[in-house]
């Protein structure tokens, strides 16, 4: 259940956040647009398939720890915006087209260069037997647009005693074996040089989530 990467590319190319523009807007926009063109041009010849998510769940002393790995056929900057941009396309079910996550409010509390602290209100859809509804979530998040990392912690959240976590977005150099003589580059700049600017960059997302529900029994 996720948004359309193709649609998200178009949004990312045309809709940059204010904090990104305060960094190096031209370089960021050029990177996203260049990658968008590479992915579209290579779609038929070198198709990309997102790997199935890897999920590991452990429980200790009443706390549930969930570790998740995801891959996206999008460059890291675009994937970071999936997590942080409230104007993105809605997250919907691939079966019922029900909206699963609704963005209600987003307020920047503090900004320090590429790092900012935000307060976020969302509503997450839930189902139990034949009942369904939405659970409001109020969290504070620290987002770093330079390192493409974030962490968050609940402020107000029904039924949850603990709800916090972190995530990071890292590049996957998709075409390095084909374009860089099998040598994996160590940076986007090195990859661009060895691939002649023709190498696609995908993303790996790792998430650490800790949560514990309130017991009423």
TrEMBL record:
Biased composition (Polar residues): 17-27
Listed InterPro entries: DUF220
GO biological process, one term: jasmonic acid biosynthetic process
Coiled coil: none
Region called Disordered, residue ranges: 1-32
Domain DUF220: 132-204
Any one GO molecular function term: monoatomic cation channel activity
Domain of life: Eukaryota
GO CC annotations, alphabetized: chloroplast outer membrane
Positions with biased composition (Basic and acidic residues): 7-16
Ranges annotated as spanning the membrane: none
Record-given protein name: DUF220 domain-containing protein
The species this protein was found in: Arabidopsis thaliana (Mouse-ear cress)
